[in-house]
Design a protein that fits this description.
By secondary structure, the chain is an alpha+beta fold. It has four helices and five strands; from the N terminus they run H-E-E-E-H-H-H-E-E. Strand 2 and strand 3 form a beta hairpin.
Length: 128
């Protein structure tokens, strides 16, 4: 679907830009997907084993991409990128002190309603 492709290429470009700007280009490539069914979940990042390393997949809700403001989408992407950075450095994903420190550095609010499981981190709630 062309509209999805547009969203996905925008996310990829933003990921490249933020990677250079905020993460010293340390982050590996991230694949992107759109989930049209999510209503309360905004975004999620998963890590999958890939050639003795990891491959990252960030999924965004169609509702956020369609109706969210540019800044709410950027905040959401940065949130998931912090999880990628955490995982690359320590193979963990959480909303602990390190996450909060990085979120403050990037001037985004740590999302209180986000959940983290062993294999993925997911942000829920309405875009603010
Ligand atoms: Zn999170």
């Amino acid at each position: 679907m062309p509209i999805y492709r547009l969203y996905l290429s925008r996310l990829k470009k933003l990921h490249d830009r933020f990677n250079g700007k905020h993460f010293g280009n340390e982050l590996g490539a991230c694949l992107f997907a759109v989930n049209p069914k999510w209503t309360s979940t905004q975004a999620e990042i998963e890590f999958l084993p890939h050639k003795r390393s990891w491959r990252y997949l960030a999924t965004f809700s169609l509702a956020l991409l369609k109706e969210g403001t540019a800044s709410s989408i950027r905040r959401c992407l940065l949130h998931e990128m912090i999880h990628q950075w955490q995982h690359q450095n320590s193979e963990s994903m959480d909303h602990g002190a390190e996450f909060n420190r990085k979120a403050r550095e990037l001037r985004i609010e740590p999302s209180a309603s986000a959940t983290v499981s062993k294999k993925s981190a997911r942000s829920q709630g309405t875009p603010r």
